[in-house]
Amino acid sequence: MIPAAFEYHAPKSLEEALRLLSRHGNEAKILAGGHSLLPLMKLRLAAPRCVIDIGRIQALRYIREENGRIAIGALTTHTEVLESPLLRAKCPLLPQTAWEIGDVQVRNRGTVGWSLAHADPAADYPAAVLALDAELVAASVHGTRTLRAMEFFVDMLTAALLPGEILTEVRVPILPPRTGTAYRKLHQPASGYALVGAAACLTLGPGGIVERVAVGLTGVGPKAYRAVAVEKALAGKKASEKLLTGAARHAVPEHVEPLSDLQASAEYRTAMAVVFVRRALESALARAQGKPR
Amino acid sequence: MATATRYMGRPLKRKEDPRLIQGLSHYVDDLRLPDMHYVVFVRSPHAHARIRSMDTSRAQTAPGVLAVLTGQDLGNAVGVIPCAAQLPEMKLALRPPLATERVLFVGEPVALVVAVDRYAARDAAELVEVEYEPLTPIVDPEKALARGAPVLHPQYSDNVAYRWELEGGDVGAAFQKADKVVRQKMVNQRLIPVALEPRAVVANYKPGENKLTVWSTTQIPHLLRTQIAAALGVPEYIVHVIAPEVGGGFGSKLNVYAEEVLVAHLAMRLGKPVKWTESRRENFQATIHGRDQIATMELAVKRDGTLLGLRCHILADLGAYYQLLTPLIPTLTGLMICGCYKIPAVRVEITGAFTNKMATDAYRGAGRPEATYFIERAIDMVAAELKKDPAEIRRKNFPKPKEFPYATPTGLIYDSANYPKSLDMALKKSGYRRLRAQQAKLRRQGRYLGIGLSTYVEICAMGPSSAMPAGGWESATVRIEPTGKVNILTGASPHGQGQETSFAQIAADLLGLEPDDIHVVHGDTAIVPYGIGTFGSRATAVGGTAVYTALVKIRDKLATIAGHILQEDPQRLVFRDKKIFLKSNPAKSVAFAEAVGAAYIAKALPAGMEPGLEATHFFEPSNFTFPFGAHVAVVEVDPETGEVHLQRYVAVDDCGNVINPLLVDGQVHGGIVQALGQAFLEEAVYDENGQLITGELTDYAIPRAWDVPRLETARTVTPSPVNPLGVKGVGEAGTIGATPALVNAVVDALAPFGVRHLDMPTKRERIWQLIRKFKPTGSRPATKRVGDGRGRRGRRKR
Fold this sequence. Notes:
heterodimer, A: alpha+beta, Uridine Diphospho-n-acetylenolpyruvylglucosamine Reductase, domain 2, Uridine Diphospho-n-acetylenolpyruvylglucosamine Reductase, domain 3, Enolase-like, domain 1, 3 domains, five-stranded antiparallel beta sheet, 12 helices, 26% strand, B: alpha+beta, Aldehyde Oxidoreductase, domain 4, Aldehyde Oxidoreductase, domain 3, seven-stranded mixed beta sheet, five-stranded mixed beta sheet
């Protein structure tokens, strides 16, 4: 990599990182796992004057149960998410999603928080955090604030972080019994990103009624979104193959303009969103019913 | 003298592996010389433009910059980039090392910067100002040939690089007699070779000694040396080329590139060691591409499936300029177009077209994958048209084993083969009949299994010098040291093929030694006698034969010395276990090292014998070799998404005698995976402006481990009569045999949807559209959901 010259900082603590960020403002870029920033710098499409490498802040690397939720430090790697017994037992959607990211090398370096903060329209985690109604914690020199996943993804490559803010934590719920989750994805054959990625979280009530359901979609439009119409078509109804198939047809609402590129036209993406939402729902339902999938 | 085959034929692990696996090997970019300077090229962002002006003044004064040069600055100091191919009435399209007046493809270098480090060089390169006047890009080869199309090379009246024809037998009569004619236009798309190691060059000039050393990622160190000397106008003896560890080539390093010649020139011009290492983006834009042929195939057949004639027109997109072999590659397609079938009458017409793209040239298979793809697809269409099993159509048209050597109407002599045997083995190994039954059953359930066959023949061991552009022989020197250790100097230039191991196996058997007693040296023009290099699956069949023959010479000499010591007839001696002994009485022996020592001490040699132990052989093959095989691919198409899942792959290959089965399997595996890349994933896409939009690995899809099931390989062995080892070559067989098998499988899976042909890569969206748009005449095939969408990563379940 032959990037343009830049000033490099490697703070050891969050406080130090926040001070650096507040000092350098717009001229600084945060470097975490490096998978998004470095390719841009390599091609000189990005040439930040200052790079703040937060990768050494060990305090932002954890997965723990806290106040009835699971808190994940923003610098936790995809591999750590994938292998966490706590997440596997109590919120398996995140490990299921991490498994579909890149390859071993990517998963060993990429971080959950900064994959989210980059707000890549084809990244995998956005679908999962939307389906989990996760909370995201952002810190700045002025304090911290908590955002809901639904309000986090603003536009293509734009998250709801303010200048001077660093994403520090992702909080996901401990899923209730009779809940099944699944992430189903159509891979972009070259990059491995999601052409379409559908995350489903489904809880069954008495009599096989869908008590709660949430579906997140990534890859389809310029930003990840909750498929609210799909959820509405399912909630309170008795789960069946037919019900899921019908509901999945609402995967791409009118306000979402599907992306179109070399790998997939808007038409194909739309059709695949329907297929993969249905498949995610089917797997989630089977797991909620206790069937191995 | 008898030769024991103790090592030949055994799956020895590669001698190369420990250093490669441990990161102890040295590639060009690992080289660090004192005062090294770094080169960065300024490249055209336009596919077709006139250069109005260039201003290098800001770059010249940037920090750390030693030199900034344009084509104008070079003047005549560096010659054009050579093309070895000669075809009748071929228009020349030789490339200047740096463009001066016009640029003809995206990535063409227009200037270069030399600086103290890569960063300074890259920063300064951005300060070179070039004013371009964009011209109409010529991207589509069919449009390039249209009347009134803009002309790429203004000295010519059109974009036709050459026309080439070949005819054998009475084609007109064959088509008149035919019950059916099957026609299809097919595209064999442009590919990017993607060697793991991009290109790199280091050059160093020592004025006192007048020595220029060039380290390059090349498959042809000697040819590169000759061409550097010619381009720089210096005596060849001052140029020393070294190909150290080379991280794959697939033909992309079988070339003489502008960057190689320019870096060599810079070392002399500036008196500093200079290094250039290609970025992956440069590798995509400015290293040769492969394939890119559009064929219209016509097969004339009788109702019973007998092939009567073949007509083929090929439009080859050559890119803007010729590289070393550019015009020649499509003609190999023409020569091999009949495949392994008896087709009495053939007519091939090839038109080469200039377009505003990087040159195409030899990429793994080089013309044969295209030929095999075209004929194997066409054969499947004949089977579909006649409603016959594709295996039976193939079998019906094979020349019989007793017909070999078999002369094709394209003028080749296939050396030896048993096509029915390999087909039978592949059918049996794959359980072909059961697969067909399973396919029928699954179709009723709305699942779409596809079974694809390919029976291929290819042309290897390139080749007899009479048929090659610049010599087709290979050299070897065997030099035994006074201590009894053996050096083999080969003119072949392995870059992943494993000849350090296989040549040691040959030598160990001939001399009765262990492979560890043998050291194979290659890739250094100051050490190794002039050689041709590694390409065209030639290193073992031609280079290995040179090694073998040189070994025989030296063994004869050693036998004479040993016979002299033992007072026995040399013809009755055996080399084994580091001894030379009498076959009838092994106790009567002399140690190998003692016989060697005698040659050097030279006090008791037979009268008139030269001292020393060195033998060289330049082997000139009398013919090519023609490996063959039969492949079976089994795929399942997901009708909801159009995804293709490769479920099984059975490959039966025949590359003649096998020196090391592990190496052969490795070549077959790699070749099949690369074929999978072409069949399912890869495509170099230039947009209408001539921009390479698959310009990085994020957009150009190459196969990954999870795309590949366990490969089931097997072999038949039909020795080649062309060389004493009976070997044929296997470096390209996989890409040649597998591509059509894979596509045939996909088309077979889609047959219920009326699909007759599908161009590569068989993209998911295209398949999805074909299924969706299918209007059945009878009942619509079911498209039941196949699975839960675990899709391509189904095998990675934890």
